[in-house]
Amino acid sequence: HAKKQGKNRFFWFESSMESELRFRNEMIQGLRRGIEKGEFVPFYEQQIDLETGKLVGFEMLARWNSPDFGIVGPDIFIPIAEEMGLIGDLSEQLIVQAFTDAKSWAPELTLSVNISPVQMRDPWFSQKLLKLLIEHNFPPHRLEIEITESCLHENIGMVRTMIASLQNQGVHVSLDDFGTGYASLSQLSSLPFDRLKIDRSFVKELSGSNSGAKIVQAMVSMSDGLHMPVTAEGIEDEKILEALKTLGKMKGQGYHYGLPENGEAVRKRLAESGQLAQEVPARTGTAE
Ligand code: C2E
Ligand code: MG
Ligand code: MG
Ligand code: MG
């Protein structure tokens, strides 16, 4: 009897592994097809100047509108795309859509995009990005690239060169999820980030006791010391927002301001606040 149970357990194990493999395979096939069919769409999260309360830009967040799986979030498909060597193509597709969307916004609004460590390892990345900026006539100074501390595990000299070449093009480079990685303070201070984004795991502590506030406060004063402006992510309520405002000038984002929305919803929002790009009057041909 015991033997039979063991055998069953073995079969159960095998078949759950099998179904996991099958799911993964479907994902991989679906992802490849989805890129070809353009099923990946940019969503946008508002970024606010906390001092004035004004909208200053958006962070693009990728979504997969899959016929088989529904709306899939980036935490699921980005790692698979990275492993399959598809992240470059996928990212390019999303960035091109985001450029098109952002060109319909008021020109002072910025666009932030997340870039994977795999892309940062590509020595041609900044060239490829420059080509996209030119082809789509998007002003580099409106673009902010977000990279995470996990990029810094690798060849830090190469990362430094990449940051410099992006900044030479006029693109801004931010450190995302600041505080969650393993970057040493000396590494951080040796890289000329334009901005530090404090991870929401720290920000959320501001809704509780004040030991949480101490950490965020320390991160803000460290950023001050490095002359790097700050964005706080994960602002979920008024209490967090008020606590952040006492810590200094900064930008912020989070569900308090609404969930990420698609390009259409963003345009509607901007139309209401008068923050769409001025329509360029079509030339009639009679002028001059
Ligand atoms: P991230 O860059 O740190 O983006 C913030 C994530 O936190 C987003 O999740 C966003 O929806 C969520 N978030 C924002 N405000 C709040 C809040 O107030 N509370 C809570 N609980 N969550 C909040 P999302 O969209 O699932 O993205 C997850 C991660 O996926 C991103 O983290 C980013 O690292 C990565 N990602 C997103 N789009 C892309 C992309 O196009 N390329 C690459 N390489 N990575 C991407
Ligand atoms: Mg980000
Ligand atoms: Mg982040
Ligand atoms: Mg994050």
Automatic annotation (TrEMBL):
GO terms for molecular function: catalytic activity. The keyword Transmembrane applies. Residues 24-274 form the EAL domain. It comes from the Bacteria. Residues 270-288 are annotated as: Disordered. Keywords: Membrane, Transmembrane, Transmembrane helix. The keyword Transmembrane helix applies. This is EAL domain-containing protein. It comes from Qipengyuania oceanensis.
